[in-house]
Structures are given as structure tokens and as C-alpha cells.
Design goal:
about 110 residues
Length: about 110
């Protein structure tokens, strides 16, 4: 939220709490929270992203969530924190998105 990390964190925490764990909405809110934490809590941010990848099947991971994961990876690029390498590996091996026809895109 344009440099307002605490405000973004508070709103993302509220959104995450209002969602059912494992749903696309929960994933979106959790990844916004992870982005807000990336600068001062990179290990927590990476762990949240890994939690999303553990709880949401790749076929149910929306394009917006994938974009947030990519942004988060960029934010964590210069952070030598716990879980960051694990997150990079999981993102590298993430299957291609499934389109409406249920065929994986190339």
C-alpha cells in the first residue's frame, strides 16, 4: 500500500482472518500480508507463501495469487532469510496454470 506497511499489514491480517483457510480469497489476503512483511520479517513472509503453496492446490491458485508470489519473490531476492530458498524452489517447480479448459498452459 504505497509504503504504508503497517496499514497494509493490518488490513491484510483482517482479510485473512475473515476468509476460510485454503480458499483463493485466503491465499490472496495471505500473500498481501506476506508482501507487507517482506522488508522487516522476510522469514515470516516466505513461510506464509509456503503455507499458501501447501494449502492451495496449484490448479486452484489464481493468476493474481501467482502474480503476488512473483512479486514476493522479487521483494525477498536480496534477503538471506530462512525459508526464502525453499520458496524459490517451490515457485520454480510450480506447475503451469490450468486454464478453463482444464489443460495446463505452456
Amino acid at each position: 500500500m504505497l509504503g504504508r506497511t503497517e496499514q497494509a499489514r493490518a488490513r491484510a491480517e483482517a482479510s485473512t482472518a475473515a476468509c476460510t483457510t485454503g480458499t483463493p480469497g485466503w491465499a490472496a489476503a495471505t500473500l498481501v500480508l506476506a508482501q507487507a512483511e517482506a522488508s522487516d520479517q522476510p522469514s515470516d513472509a516466505a513461510q506464509r507463501a509456503l503455507d499458501v503453496l501447501d494449502r492451495v492446490q496449484p490448479s486452484r491458485l489464481r493468476a493474481t495469487a501467482r502474480t503476488r508470489l512473483e512479486r514476493l519473490e522479487g521483494l525477498l531476492a536480496a534477503r538471506p532469510a530462512e525459508y526464502v530458498a525453499d520458496l524459490r524452489e517451490r515457485l520454480r517447480t510450480l506447475p503451469a496454470p490450468v486454464e478453463a479448459s482444464r489443460a495446463a498452459s505452456a
